[in-house]
Amino acid sequence: MPMFQPSKKDGLLGFEGGGDGRILDLDTAVKDGVLGGVAGGGFGGGIGEKLDLKKMIEELNLPEVPSVFICPISLEPMQDPVTLCTGQTYEKSNILKWFSLGHYTCPTTMQELWDDTVTPNKTLYHLIYTWFSQKYVQMKKRSEDAQGRASELLSTLKKVKGQARIQTLKELQQVVASHSTARKTVVDEGGVALLSSLLGPFTSYAVGSEVVAILVNLALSSESKTNLMQPAKVSSIVDILNEGSLETKVNCVRLIETLMEEKDFRTEIVSSHSLLVALMRLVRDKRHPNGHLPGLGLLKLISMHQQVRSLIVSIGAIPQLVELIPTLNPECLELALFILNALSSVPEGKQALKDCSNTIPNMVKLLMRISESCTEYALSILWSVCKLSPDECSLIAVDAGLAAKLLLVIQSGCNPELKQRAAELLKLCSLNYSDTIFISKCKLTRTIQ
Amino acid sequence: MGLLCSRQRHNQADSEENEQTAEIDRRIEQETKAEKHIQKLLLLGAGDSGKSTIFKQIKLLFQSGFDEAELKGYIPVIHANVYQTIKILHDGSKELSQNLADSSKFMVSDENKQIGEKLSEIGGRLDYPRLTKELAHEIETLWRDNAIQETYSRGNELQVPDCAHYFMENLQRLSDADYVPTKEDVLYARVRTTGVVEIQFSPVGENKKSGEVYRLFDVGGQKNERRKWIHLFEGVTAVIFCAAISEYDQTLFEDDNKNRMMETKELFEWVLKQPCFEKTSFMLFLNKFDLFEKKVLKVPLNVCAWFKDYQPVSTGKQEIEHAYEFVKKKFEELYFQSTAPDRVDRVFKIYRTSALDQKLVKKTFKLVDETLRRRNLFEAGLL
């Protein structure tokens, strides 16, 4: 029997070499790219232990799988392919379900079936299995490579200084960013302590920014977080936050957030002018809108600590935030309002809110516009300000259209506390007006009167 | 024809003149361009804050350092420092023995009394004699006297210079006939700076010269010199403000009733508010950390009014760090309080220094250089 001699020019099958009479076995077929999408790369030999197909498919989670492996019904790779009398192949469980719904046709060809047997397609199964196994082994190897590389880089880091240190850190950052196994290696081999030791009063920006970029990707233990909370280390992180590129700034923000989650966290660590000014700068930077959300997020976390609130007010955060309100997207807006609301709980905050001429108009505009939380915070802020100097503020507020908005809140489906608050505020504001004038300010119709 | 000739000659003279003017203009333009690339750094701070030491360190690190002639030039200064120191200590011991209850502690022993008076007289002269072996021996004897040692431990109440201990311990060497001061001796030598001194240098890194050219100006620190500087310093890239954090329990040389730290605080505030520094980067050097370390465990920070709300939390190294962080936060607070909102984007960084430690100064300056280079890139829109 003549051997099948594939032609070199046979692009359809993508054979490399060939035409020299060797036996076409399954492994070679897959390796040589029968089905496409296989990068060669020195893989040799069969599969060792029995790997579970389902597990491999899940773990690999590949976006591009050869189309002949895909079940036409579920569009997922087939784990138990069966063929119908029409010659079409489907995932067994899917086609049986199709039948159980009362259909006796072939889903793709729409033909009526003259035979309801489903035949397990062993050939296709073997191909699928081999293909995924190869991919899996490759991935494992790359991962091990990454682990090995990470380990190597850590030992290099212990020895080098200057430019070499910066290069090593850059490479380590890339390895850690793309391989979760490398991350584990770094943590297991004491990398966190090593990296933390590089942060201090004499850390250059070049080194510090890379260290933060790496640490932010790792799972930090309680002990390492406590270590990072040393004032000198926090200082260097804050300095990097001040000077850094957007990406570096966001990394610093995330790192600080992680530290704040620790139960031993001491508020004085974030009680720093430099940190708060840096965050406000991040939040206000029009050139880098992607920094607003992280900045506001951290600022919110910090504002939850009572002791730091007056400090936040003292750096002028309130007028800056109030000015930003009209420009923020809903997610950022909610954070900004939370912060302003938290700050309104301290006397300096109330005063600053009142002193800022745009507070009341901006808050009034926000009522019932974005979300219930936003309305809640805006209302609370208005309440604080109006309580502070009822005469002056209710005038401004009512002129800005507060009354009509409050009525909207009361009539809406919001939670009862919110409505209660709105009613109280309405009452407070109405005290300065006679009934007729107030009603006209509310722009009410006769019926509601 | 004659007219034609003379006109030609006239034109020739004209064009020669024009060429000269053009050449001069070109030269001026070139130099202005070159000047623009030179980053000007200004060393500011109260008297005794360590500015001149930093200045000397930069000279040692990035210029050719001091040649033998320059080193020898410091001999009179060093000897003068020795005489001044021992006089202050001797006179101080007299003062303390008269005013205090436990006065006997400060009474110089009988055999040393005569030496003491003699040295005090020498120290009061305008011209000092060369330090001979004999004089050095006498000074050492007096230094070892218990009363003088007791006085030294109360040094903060007098104006005992920081170099006292160093010079007293090296008297033998300083009095050698062929003594040539070491770099360290020069760093410790204390001379009151009057006027302005400047050097131009390029920081040398791993990759040779970084390309940046800096011109560093050092100015006099005492109050009576201050008014002179400020007008000279428009367009300065950065101010390096030196604050000696170890002096929280000392008073001014020029005013015995004023606490030095309070003086520094007021000066810093004043400098920050100057219109000419609106866009200038500020590098705050919290200097004399080595002295601070030793002092802070013995003398509580609250002796200084600015630090009156300080609470110690632990002991030893941790406490030193805690105290340092406290002082640092105070300066940070002062900076932000003295900075108008439109200036808040100025670069402001704090560094911990011990100006006498050359390695530390080199490390610190490298960081300063990095920050300034990044700032330049940022302002050029490249970051």
Share of helical residues of chain A: 55-70%
Q: Number of helical runs of chain B?
A: 15
Q: Which chains have the largest interface?
A: A-B, 22 and 27 residues
Number of helices of chain A: 23
H/E element order of chain A: HHEEHEHHHHHHHHHHHHHHHHHHHH
- Return the average pLDDT of chain A rounded to an integer: 83
Broad structural category of chain A: mainly alpha
Report the major sheet of chain A: 3 strands, antiparallel
Strand order of the largest sheet of chain B: 2-5-1-6-7-8
Strand order of the largest sheet of chain A: 2-1-3
Strand content of chain B: 5-15%
Assembly type: heterodimer
Order of helices and strands of chain B: HEHHHHHHHHHEEEEHEHEHHEH
Indicate the overall shape of chain A. flat
Overall average residue pLDDT of chain B = 82
- Uncertain segments of chain B: 1-5
Cα-atom radius of gyration of chain B? 26 Å
Structural class of the helix and strand makeup of chain B? alpha/beta
Binding site for GTP (chain B): 187-193, 218-222, 287-290, 355
Binding site for Mg(2+) (chain B): 52, 193
Subunit structure (chain B): G proteins are composed of 3 units; alpha, beta and gamma. The alpha chain contains the guanine nucleotide binding site.
Cofactor (chain B): Mg(2+)
